Amino acid sequence: MDHLLIIGGIAGGIILLLLIGGPFKPFRAAGKTLMKIVVGALGLFLLNTVGAQWNFHIPINVITASICGLLGLPGFGALAVIQLYILPH
């Protein structure tokens, strides 16, 4: 696709949301979910940074970030157990 078309579509969507005000609950729920996934990815990054001392690494992708972001600490624990015991090096 043409880059100008993509940028125009994004800009148009932003302008539309600014004009409407974005009072729709699905947009709000999608925004909260996306924010949780981003926080999960940052948490995985920090876990990998600390875990590098002990040769511990969990890949950062959409699935693992979603698990950590939506489940919180139990999600981190579940991924750590899966990495250590179910998928040993």
TrEMBL record:
Keyword annotations for this protein? Membrane, Transmembrane, Transmembrane helix
Pfam families, alphabetized: BofA
InterPro entries in alphabetical order: BofA
Any stretches that span the bilayer, and where are they? 6-25, 37-56, 62-87
Q: Which protein, by its recorded name, is this? A: Pro-sigmaK processing inhibitor BofA family protein
Native species: Ectobacillus ponti
